[in-house]
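Changelog-adjacent note: as of this version, every example in the card shows the full chain rather than a window. The one below runs 423 residues end to end.
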Amino acid sequence: MVQKNFVCKGDICYSKDMKTLETCKDGYLVCENGVSAGVFAELPEKYQDFPLLDYTGKLILPGFTDLHVHAPQYRFRALGMDLELLEWLDTHTFPQEAKYVDTDFARKNYARFVEEMRKGPNTRGCIFGTIHRQSTEVLMELLEEAGLCAMVGKVNMDRHSPDFLRETTEESAEETIQWLADVADKFPHVKPILTPRFLPSCTDELLEKLGDIQKQHHLPVQSHLSENRGEVAWELFPKSKHYGDAYDSFGLFGGENCPTIMAHCVLSSDDEIRLMKERGVFIAHCPESNTNLASGIAPARRYLTEGIPMGLGSDIAGGTRCSIFFAMAEAIRVSKLRWRLVDESLAPLTIPEVFYLATVGGGAFFGKVGSFAEGYEFDAFVLDDSRYDNPGEYDIAQRLERVIYLTEDSEVLHKFVAGRQLF
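Full-length structure tokens:
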């Protein structure tokens, strides 16, 4: 039986809000029935009998959420980084994803991705599979066995892709319905998410069918939005006001009973931004991918100011690193470049802000996730930063700043997801 009542002692840090870090040196973090009961400088008497996990001198941080990642692309990350998006898809992505028609191949390669996710700081993810129903179920099975929480999507695409990676409209819809039936209530911690790849790969007819499926099953949705100039210039939906409006016309863009993540939003117009805000659409900010594929720099500061929900994504393999620590550092770097070179009215992101995005910001798509405040699901990891020069000279906030830029997965010593200890 999994122990879900315990206390962690160590140097604790989490977000009070977007601007403020809450820290507690030699503090006590209480897990009660898989949920945080809060952080205490002195352990309350009612928790004295809980098992104590003593991590004195180590950092204890909330688990990170990767709001946008392509699991089948893990095996070819760091290839084609001199290309733009559409050429990269044709040259590397589509040929590689076609191999996942073989479930043995899928199991072997998904296992590598899942192990990378398991051993690092990410505790949750919103994950793209491929068009292949059975291989997508294999991915869900492996994530469940690893103890992670995730939403996983069977990808839908019925046009503008090679013959070896394209379904007919009817096949795509029918395979999605069969997949949903196959995985219904099968995995306690890994759930399906509806996944039209992006507008260029989906006809009106397919999007209409996916909209009907969404309404029937009340599924969340994930896709891409206004990522790259070549993609946006395609104008495949001339009747729509903008990219987001095309999704919205099929009921796949947030609103009641349709929680939605749109990755990138590099080139979103004022009207599109207003619609995202109105519909409560989550933005997955993927700074490394946007640099590698020459898409640009998303106006993350504006999205924060507008109050649009947002988290961070690795976007493997447009991005090369699974750890959201790396996405945090990249988010700061590219925001500085945008501020200096594009728009000085949008200030660069700060350490507290990117930490918030990695934890509470992305975690909110899963509910009360990403904080140690009372009532949040207990996602946490313990980090050893002792290899850095003179760590004792720095306070917890400064240590956090250093680990954002310096951490390696091997320094994650212990990890908890929804109160379950993975290692």
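Structural remarks: Residues 66 and 125 are 5 Å apart (CA to CA).
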